[in-house]
Amino acid sequence: MSSVLIVDDDRKIRLTLGIFLERRGHRVRDVASVKAALTALKEFRADIVLSDLKMEGEDGIELLAAVKADHPSLPVIIMTAYASVEKAVEAIKRGAADFVVKPFAPAEIEQILSRAIHIRGLEAENHNLRAALDQEGMLTRAESFRRTLAMAERFARSEATVLVLGESGTGKSLIARRIHAASGRSKGPFVEVNCASLSPSLLESELFGHCKGAFTGAIKDKVGRLEAADGGTLFLDEVSELPAEGQAKLLRFLQDKVFERVGELKTRGVDARVIAATNRDLRDLVAGEGFREDLYYRLNVAEILMPPLRSRPEDIPILVERFVAQAAARNGLSSIPAMEDEVKARLARYNWPGNVRELQNVIERCVILAGSGRITMEHLPDRLSMYGAS
User: Fold this and answer.
1) Which residue of 171, 179, 200, 317 is most buried, as measured by CB atoms within 10 A?
2) DSSP string computed for 167-207
3) Does the pLDDT value for residue 15 go beyond 80?
């Protein structure tokens, strides 16, 4: 359960709330003033602060400001017997997690506490996930890429099918994971299928599953990736490589949310959101009859275009710094190697046809060769060391 700091100059309220919350399994500390609360927070690791608004001396709004300055993620719930819209709005605007009016039932406090702690947990998960994604190349100073990330966040709040377009190595898989993590399906599975890595005969079985005896070697029923994504997100990377039969079955699923396993007549329903990605122009494939037009429009409800690294050169220095530190840690180095200015300049001028993935691989090579020493031009692959040479 959680740890709760109760702040109220009414001893009876502190005791009543404290007993109720302790019986519910919470750890409780109670104090009578803002000063005492700030002192308690130095030694008591609270998950939530429950504070009266009107107290002698400093009030709950002042405590809220002090807590947010030192513990920005710590939820503060304001209690007051002086109910007014103005006070409620002021507390919420200043960062209060919630607002409750006295007199209240203890169960109401329990409900509010649970909601605030749940929200704090989701925020922590989201922060951790974003940090992990940033480590993989989602850091940016470029305004264009910031707009792309903001668009992805908005699409995440919907149930729309998303089509992610972009060159190889731009982070299409990462943006798909980011959308899943920011969506209402974040606690469900994220299931990825690379349509280019499997033969057409295996891909349909891998995606939709098969029943025993459907083909030679099908010795038992198999659950496909689509079923495995129930309640979550199915990410179809390189969807342009999906064969004709698979395209027809995917179209049916997107239209009706039903499908059949290979070799089975039983129709199954699955609650899965689809995100697809490709580095090819699907419109050209549609024109050449290599991709179904109706499937293209079903997939392209919400489109995200991942910009190539050459279009956001201001991001190269921060990505280089991050990738050097990561590579040093992966290779067990005791210190992060420094990099010559000439190397930095060459990295900044290169056009990066393989985008962020190519940059990361180049940095990994440099760190392995340089060890704890200095990264010099001789550690760069030939295509970079010779780039721009006359």
Assistant:
1) 179
2) -TTS-HHHHHHHHHHTSTTTTS-EEEEETTSS-HHHHHHHH
3) yes
Residue with tokens 């359960």: 1
- d(CA 350, CA 253) in angstroms, rounded, equals 43
* Claim to verify: residue 336 and residue 197 sit in the same structural domain: no
**Distance between CA atoms of residues 33 and 35, nearest Å:** 5
Q: What percent of the chain has pLDDT over 90?
A: 49
Strand-pair category, 302-305 with 162-165: parallel
For 141-168, letters b (16+ CB in 10 Å) and e give ebeebeebeebbeebbeeeebbbbbbbe
CATH number at residue 19: 3.40.50.2300
pLDDT of 280 > 70? The answer is yes
Q: Which of 122, 157, 190 is the last residue of a domain?
A: 122
Segments forming the whole domain that contains residue 286: 139-307
Single-letter amino acid code for the residue at 8: D
Q: pLDDT tens for residues 173-224?
A: 999 999 999 999 998 999 999 998 888 778 888 888 888 877 777 777 788 8
Total domains in the chain come to 3
